[in-house]
Amino acid sequence: MDYSDCKLCPRACGVDREAGEFGFCGAGSKLKIYRYGPHFGEEPPFSGENGSGTIFFSHCTLGCQYCQNFPWSQDGAGKEYSCEEFADILIGLAKEKCHNWNLVSPTSWLPDVKNGIDIAKKAGFFLPILYNTSGFECEKSLDDMAGIVDIYVTDLRYSKNESAKELSGAENYVESARAALLKMVEQVGHLRVDAAGIAVSGVVCRILVLPGRADEAADSLRWLKENVGRDIHISVMSQYTPTYNACEFDEMNRMLYRDEYEMVCDVAEELEFYNGWIQDFIPDEGVDDELVGYNMKS
Questions:
Q1: Pairing of strands 52-57, 79-80
Q2: Pairing of strands 79-80, 151-155
Q3: What are the CA-CA distances from residue 81 to residues 57, 85, 93, 116 (Å)?
Q4: Structural domains of the chain in order of their starting residue, each with its CATH number
Q5: Does residue 147 come out as left (phi exceeding 0), alpha (psi in the -120 to 50 range) or beta?
Q6: Cα separations in angstroms, 176 against 143, 170, 181, 244
Q7: According to the 3-state scheme, what is the secondary structure of the chain?
């Protein structure tokens, strides 16, 4: 696993990032991070009382035209860090008593991520490692992270590759994300929490409902039921907000309609998923993700 023939994600660009070449994501050879710190907007087992120790990496393997994080995911804003400096970030989050190390979109940087985690652990610091991803992952990279990652939080964003290609430039998203999710469950199983309700291992699948594409969210739930089963924890989300280039795409330049969201929630109930969360419906004025509520499924 290195940057010289980059095949860290399903695009398998094969560029030599060490020699200054750039693939789809635009990442170079020096680890780049936009921001980090305790985060309280994640699902309850991750945020807890002390927050999730969240690290937002610059660049992303998807090209979502509606991304709320576009300044760093698409435009590459951030600061470069050495592996030792990254390890210091991890150690600092552990000292702040965060509940986990939450790696947001780390795929472009896996060699440095692995090295930084190893340095932090050798210094005597250990937290559950949460791999927070869009789901656009290749099985080889996941295999390389086996035994390192404790928790996967992954999306099933689309059930139609036509949508994935149009909105995220990923025409093989569906196959890749579904295969990746199965690999994640194989590695770490279903979500486990400690006596305080804080996650220690397992998989959570997020279903972000997109305007005009609620049927795809419902299809993803049906696929989950058939291929993974009802034991998996799901997180149904209504927080879509039109940003970045959303205005250029039909149906995407608006907030989600309540009836779209309620349809997906109804499907989750009909399929009898009993683990996870249903996010509060977000009103038309948008969302501060630190204030979003989650209702526990039962």
A1: unpaired
A2: unpaired
A3: 11, 6, 16, 10
A4: 33-296 (3.20.20.70)
A5: left
A6: 14, 10, 9, 25
A7: CCCCCCCCCCCCCCCCHHHCCCCCCCCCCCCEEEEEEEECCCCHHHHCCCCEEEEEECCCCCCCCCCCCHHHHCCCCCEECCHHHHHHHHHHHHHCCCCCEEEECCHHHHHHHHHHHHHHHHCCCCCCEEEEECCCCCHHHHHHHCCCCCEEEEECCCCCHHHHHHHHCCCCHHHHHHHHHHHHHHHHCECEECCCCCEEEEEEEEEECCCCCHHHHHHHHHHHHHHCCCCCEEEEECCCCCCCCHHHCCCCCCCCCHHHHHHHHHHHHHCCCCCEEEECCCCCCCCCCCCCCEEECC
Query: How many CA atoms lie less than 13 Å away from 188 in the CB half-sphere?
Result: 30
Angle at 145 (CA atoms; ends 65, 71), nearest 5 degrees: 25
Give the model's pLDDT for residue 288.
46
Q: Can you list the residues of the chain whose pLDDT is less than 70? A: 283-298
CA 55 – CA 135 distance, rounded (Å): 17
Radius of gyration for the chain, computed over Cα atoms and rounded to the nearest angstrom: 18
Q: 292: left (phi > 0), else alpha (psi -120 to 50), else beta?
A: beta
Query: pLDDT at position 42, please?
Result: 95
CA 85-88-93 angle, to 5 degrees, is: 135
* Two structure tokens written together for 255: 């907030």
Residues of 14-33 as b/e, b for ≥16 C-beta within 10 angstroms? ebbbeeeebbbbbbbbebbb
User: What pLDDT is attached to residue 298?
Assistant: 39
- The structure's pTM equals 0.94
